[in-house]
Amino acid sequence: MSLLPQVLEEDQALLLKQSRERRESRTSEVSTIDEAVEVTGAGGWARIPWAVLGEEGEAKLADHAVTVRCLVAEDGSVPDADDAPGNVAIVARAY
């Protein structure tokens, strides 16, 4: 194996590690809509249970320019259905 592919693989692995660390450091677990508004107002991201948020909470977040960016299953995978138990909404400020 030549040196260049090895260096590229190492760089890619480092970039992936750094991006995941940055994402995790800027994302907070919250349990209320008010906490989600507070965290996102400071420039971060929030993870809130969809069972807490729901469509009504989503509308409340919109009043503060905060939107749902994605919905994930409890384990981080793609959920089977929007209303599946354990789903988590990732929310952030809309620009």
Overview of the structural elements:
The protein has 95 residues and is α+β, with helices and mostly antiparallel strands. Helices cover 47% and strands 22% of the residues. It has a domain of 66 residues: Translation Initiation Factor IF3. The mean pLDDT is 94. The chain has a four-stranded mixed beta sheet. The chain contains three helices and four strands, in the order αβαβαββ. The chain starts with a helix and ends with a strand. This is Proline-tRNA ligase class II C-terminal domain-containing protein. InterPro entries: Pro-tRNA_ligase_II_C (IPR016061). It comes from Streptomyces africanus.
Distance between the termini: 45 Å
Q: Give start-end ranges of low-pLDDT stretches.
A: none
Total beta-strand segments: 4
How much β-strand is present in the residues?
15-25%
Q: Roughly how many Å is the radius of gyration?
A: 17 Å
CATH top level of the domain at 28-93 is Alpha Beta
Please report the number of helical segments: 3
CATH homologous superfamily of the domain at 28-93 - what is it? C-terminal domain of ProRS
CATH architecture of the domain at 28-93: 2-Layer Sandwich
The whole-number mean of residue pLDDT values reads 94
Inertia-based shape: elongated
Task: Tell me the helix content.
Answer: 40-55%
What's the helix-strand series? HEHEHEE
Query: Structural class given helices, strands, pairing?
Result: alpha+beta
Classify the oligomer.
single chain
Strand order, sheet with most strands: 1-2-4-3
- What is the CATH topology of the domain at 28-93? Translation Initiation Factor IF3
Largest sheet: 4 strands, mixed
